[in-house]
């Protein structure tokens, strides 16, 4: 089947009747439910965009000849990588970068897993070819243009213990039974973003946290459709309050939802299983398949779009209240401009220095991408802080559309809320957008998302430190000191 339209995506969600819960109740139809219908429409718009800009968004499937989504491509050239990044950018710009989980994010990961089928074959057993399973699953998702979420993290019960050491070792999702047909899974996983409105979910190991063999029962990778009996997606309360998009410019469109995923003896057939009972393979999955590199390529393209959008908001705010002449204002806007240019450079170097990996995929240079993913979780908090500092009381003087509609107070709002170059109505709309980026529940969830979604930045920085090639820099300084010793003509003093 060629790439889906928005209408096909929404129809599928209706028909699937997935196991979605919110506020204590099962959701009958997410496309109608107030917590999900608007964000589902936004995802549908992304699917439609594929058909509005087919040259940018689609490529020819190598198996069916259909036109399928470009985020699924197994890149063979640098041009493929650049075309794929431009596709990421189209989708990211649609929400100003506020939808972290547009389906391209997971699509890149399953593409990388499929290319690295031989990696999964290390775990083959009982005649089951896990490499073949992962390859077929990727093709199934690509040809049906499905939307996926993923869940990688164990519940937070006690972070100083492994899963098998927990006071209740049955809490984290684990394999309870295997038979000739498949595996049976019980327990819980966190935190499936977009889980309420995706077709399928993949359960994979953490990109970062390592397990020991004692945690083999928890060490697995598999895929399931979101209506699988014995599974439940329990979504957090919605930050879409059912307001119009003037009042709530982002939350009323892009609140992706985050779900706790619960398994109760859920049956997963062998053809959907990719790793089972093997902590060692799990520990190496994201790095050795290069999935983390392709995902980071998508993330940095998305973050670039987010930085463009938030910079645009900041620049409009500066003009709206005539603060462009103040030095600290320019300095703060410049910080965001520098962030934008820096992100572009990270991407350029990653693509320019790309090389073919052992699976035959043209793979971006991870060094600049990895540096960008260490840095942006902190930078995004700063962008929000800058919006707060420059917005000041304007972020609270934000009457609603109804205030402007009111016969009694509407004219007051038009007049008293005006800016240097804008009528009150236009200025408040802009400041409501700034509020939704930096202050609202939606905005604060974005801050938490950017900080944590790729893993704990503290542990990421520790892994980065260990991984970084430090020797050349240490040697440079040792050479310098050695040269100084020689040139000064002194006799070295021994201890
Ligand atoms: C908005 C949002 C969306 C998300 N979406 C997804 C998703 O779609 N799929 C998914 O799988 N995950 C998702 N996540 C989860 C994300 O991967 C985790 O938040 C992240 O890996 C950190 O894990 P944790 O939240 O369990 O924090 P914890 O590991 O519980 O950490 C809590 C605190 O304790 C500290 N800490 C804990 N253990 C250690 C340690 N060993 N060493 C040092 N410090 C430690 C941390 O630094 C942190 O300050 C999402 C998270 C958020 C906030």
Question: Can you put this structure into words, describing what you see?
Answer:
With 495 residues, the protein is an alpha+beta fold. The chain folds into two domains: 6-288, Butyryl-CoA Dehydrogenase, subunit A, domain 2, CATH 2.40.110; 291-474, Butyryl-CoA Dehydrogenase, subunit A, domain 3, CATH 1.20.140.10. It is 49% helix and 14% strand. The protein has 18 helices and 14 strands. It has helices spanning 6-16, 37-52, 54-57, 78-94, 104-115, 117-121, 130-144, 251-254, 279-288, 291-320, 327-352, 366-391, 401-405, 410-416, 424-438, 441-452, 457-467, 471-487; strands at residues 20-22, 25-26, 58-60, 67-69, 148-151, 174-178, 182-193, 200-203, 220-225, 231-235, 258-269, 273-276, 355-356, 362-363. The strands form four sheets. The protein has a six-stranded mixed sheet, with no helix packed on it. The longest helix has 30 residues, at 291-320. It starts with 5 loop residues before the first helix and ends in an 8-residue tail after the last helix. Bound molecules: flavin-adenine dinucleotide (FAD). The site of flavin-adenine dinucleotide (FAD) has 21 residues, from β5, β7, α16 and α17.
SSE diagram, text form:
Elements: H1 6-16, E1 20-22, E2 25-26, H2 37-52, H3 54-57, E3 58-60, E4 67-69, H4 78-94, H5 104-115, H6 117-121, H7 130-144, E5 148-151, E6 174-178, E7 182-193, E8 200-203, E9 220-225, E10 231-235, H8 251-254, E11 258-269, E12 273-276, H9 279-288, H10 291-320, H11 327-352, E13 355-356, E14 362-363, H12 366-391, H13 401-405, H14 410-416, H15 424-438, H16 441-452, H17 457-467, H18 471-487
The chain binds flavin-adenine dinucleotide.
């Amino acid at each position: 089947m060629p790439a889906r339209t928005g209408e096909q995506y929404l129809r599928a969600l209706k028909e699937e009747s997935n196991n979605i819960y919110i506020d204590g109740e099962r959701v009958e139809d997410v496309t109608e439910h107030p917590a999900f219908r608007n964000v589902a429409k936004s995802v549908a718009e992304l699917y439609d965009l594929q058909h509005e800009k087919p040259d940018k968004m689609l490529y020819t499937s190598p198996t069916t000849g259909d036109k399928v989504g470009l985020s699924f491509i197994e890149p063979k050239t640098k041009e493929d990588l650049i075309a794929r990044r431009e596709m990421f950018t189209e989708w990211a710009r649609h929400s100003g970068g506020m939808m972290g989980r547009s389906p391209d994010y997971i699509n890149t990961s399953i593409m990388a897993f499929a290319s690295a089928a031989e990696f999964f074959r290390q775990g083959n057993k009982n005649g089951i070819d896990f490499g073949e399973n992962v390859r077929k699953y990727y093709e199934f998702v690509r040809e049906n243009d499905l939307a996926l979420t993923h869940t990688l993290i164990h519940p937070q019960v006690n972070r100083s213990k492994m899963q098998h050491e927990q006071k209740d070792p049955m809490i984290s999702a684990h394999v309870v039974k295997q038979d000739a047909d498949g595996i049976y899974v019980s327990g819980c996983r966190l935190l499936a973003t977009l889980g309420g409105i995706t077709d399928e979910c993949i359960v994979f190991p953490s990109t970062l946290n390592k397990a020991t063999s004692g945690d083999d029962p928890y060490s697995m990778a598999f895929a399931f459709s979101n209506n699988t009996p014995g599974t439940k997606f329990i979504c957090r309360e919605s930050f879409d309050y059912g307001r119009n998009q003037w009042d709530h410019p982002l939350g009323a469109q892009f609140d992706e939802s985050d779900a706790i995923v619960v398994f109760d003896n859920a049956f997963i057939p062998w053809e959907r299983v990719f790793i089972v009972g093997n902590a060692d393979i799990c520990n190496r999955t994201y790095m050795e398949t290069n999935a983390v590199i392709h995902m980071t390529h998508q993330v940095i393209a998305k973050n670039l779009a987010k930085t463009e959008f938030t910079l645009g908001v900041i620049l409009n705010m500066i003009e709206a209240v005539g603060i462009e002449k103040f030095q600290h204002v320019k300095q703060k806007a410049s910080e965001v401009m520098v962030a934008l240019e820096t992100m572009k450079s990270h991407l350029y170097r990653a693509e320019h220095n790309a090389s073919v990996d052992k699976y035959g995929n043209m793979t971006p240079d991870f060094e600049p991408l990895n540096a960008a993913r260490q840095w942006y979780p902190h930078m995004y908090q700063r962008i929000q802080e800058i919006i707060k500092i420059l917005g000041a009381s304007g972020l609270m003087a934000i009457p609603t559309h109804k205030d402007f509609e009111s016969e009694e107070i509407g004219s007051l709002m038009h007049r008293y809320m005006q800016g240097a170059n804008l009528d009150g109505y236009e200025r408040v709309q802009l400041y409501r957008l700034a509020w939704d980026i930096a202050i609202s529940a939606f905005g604060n969830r974005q801050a938490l998302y950017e900080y944590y979604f790729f893993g704990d930045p503290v542990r990421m920085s520790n892994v980065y430190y260990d991984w970084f090639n430090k020797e050349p820099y240490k040697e440079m300084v040792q050479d310098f000191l050695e040269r100084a010793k020689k040139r000064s003509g002194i006799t070295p003093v021994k201890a």
